[in-house]
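To whoever picks this up:

The nightly regression suite flagged TauD/TfdA family dioxygenase as changed. Nothing in the input moved, so I suspect the structure step. Input below, exactly as stored in the fixture:
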Amino acid sequence: MPGTGTGPLVRLDATEAPPGAAVDWLTAHRPEIRAAVARNGAVLVRGLRLDSRAAAAAAVGRVIGDPLIEREGFAPRDTYGQGVYSSSHWPADQPMCMHHELSYASSAPRLVAFACLTPPADGGITATADSRAVLRDLPEDLVARFERHGWRLTRHYNPFVGIGWQEAFGTDDSSAVDRYCAEHGIEARWDADGALHTVQTRPAVVRHPETGERCWFNQIAFLNEWTMAPEVREFLTAEFGPEGLPFNTFCGDGTPLDRASVDLINDVYERHTVREPWRHGDLLVIDNVRTAHSREPHRGEREIVVGLGEPFQP
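Regenerated output under the current build:
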C-alpha cells in the first residue's frame, strides 16, 4: 500500500481489493490509514470498488471510529447510519469555503471521511488545507485578537434558508432545544412567532488533542457575510435585514469583521489549498483539527457519502 504525493494529501492504492470486498480491505488496512492521517493530516485511498451507497456508507463507517451525531447543521443531509450522512445539500454553483467540520459546536469530529460514488462532470473538488500552516501565515495581530476573544457565531433559523431548528437540533420540542443550548454554551432567544436566534462563542485556535500543536480551527470566514456571493448577501440583507442574516460571524467580543480581514483569511487558505479531482471509489480521510476542507462549485450530479467520527471537545 505505497503512499505517493506531497503536501498534506497522501495517496494510498486500494486497487488490490477484490470486487465487493472494500470494507474487508479497509478493515485490514485501517491501522495504516489512521497512521497516515496522523502523519499527514489527510489521506486519499484510491481504487476502492464502491458499487452502492450502502457500500460507501459501510466504508466510511469502518474508518471513522466512534461516530458523532451531527447537531446544529447548516444545510440538509440524508442520514445513512450512525455518524454517516450524505454531503450537505448546498447549491452546486456556490462554494463551501474552507472550514473545520462542526468547529462551532461544543463537540466536533476528530476524523471526517468522504467516499465518492459519483464524481461530478466538472469541479466539486473537496480541497484540503493545513491549519497549522494557515495559522503560521496569518497576521500575528489578527491571530492574537481571535486567540484572546475567540469567534462568535450568530444564527437566525428560518424555513427559507438552510434548515429549520427542528432539523438542526433533531427535535420539535422547543424546551429540549433550550436545554441543549444551556448545556452547550449557546444563548437562545425565541421570537413571538417561534423563530429561533442563537449566539455562541468558541475558540478560534485550539491545541491538537494528540500532538498539542496549535491549529487554526473555526469557520470564521466561511460563515461570514463577506464570503457570501454579493447577490446572495444583498438578497438576504434586503429580506431579513443586516441583523437578521441566517448566519454571520464576529470576533468573540462582538466586533464585526470587515471584508478585508475575511478576504485575507480566505487568501491564506487558498495559498495552502491542495486539490485532487474526485474519482469513483475514492475515500478521503482527514484529521479535522489539522486539516480544513472545502467544496468547490460543480456541474453535474455529485454523490459523496460523509462520516463523522472520534468526537472531542475543542
